[in-house]
């Protein structure tokens, strides 16, 4: 650990002309107090026991040079700045909540079909889903993400056919979705069926899965995920601050005990001297 306040650049010369090494420089009261602060944090965090803390603290206040101070904290972490709190996004409610579903309904569809044969396909982002969309996967896989999509109309039908492959349909939690497909020697997951915002479109997922699978999952929009992540970070920072306050209180208690022990030692030495 480098002691703050140590000289930078060229070291001063001794009277005889030879330079003085930084480790030989005399330590100031402020530098001794900074080392003591690191030691107090260490004992409050459980890195040092009380006996080690007292030994090092005594040595810190008795130190005369940087060379005597630095070994006292060489095996301890250097205190860092508090982590920055991520600012709350100006708009973290998602497209549907911000503009309403009406703003996302209408327009020419981006595509009406997707095919994956020993490969894959994706429909995601701000694409426009048609009233009728057909997806076919043969020994491949596909992803249809409607979280940020626009919709050609209020009734959307997605037909999925998976043969020895898989298709995943992702919808936001507030989108009304009904699943009615069939699985033969495969799986057509109906757990994604749920009512949603009545002002939004209605999506029906149907089709056939043979030796393959079709899943419908409800996931938060990316903006909502970012908002929740920022909230969790703020909660963690608040918890860290609580822990810091607890450590400060514990440190104050330890310092008080240390002062009492020092007073007892001085009293015993005084008694022995008489």
UniProtKB/TrEMBL annotation:
Residues 36-70 form a coiled coil. Keywords: Coiled coil. It holds the Pfam family DUF1707. Residues 25-77 form the DUF1707 domain. Residues 23-33 have a biased composition (Basic and acidic residues). It comes from the Bacteria. InterPro entries: DUF1707_SHOCT-like. This is DUF1707 and DUF2154 domain-containing protein. It comes from Streptomyces botrytidirepellens.
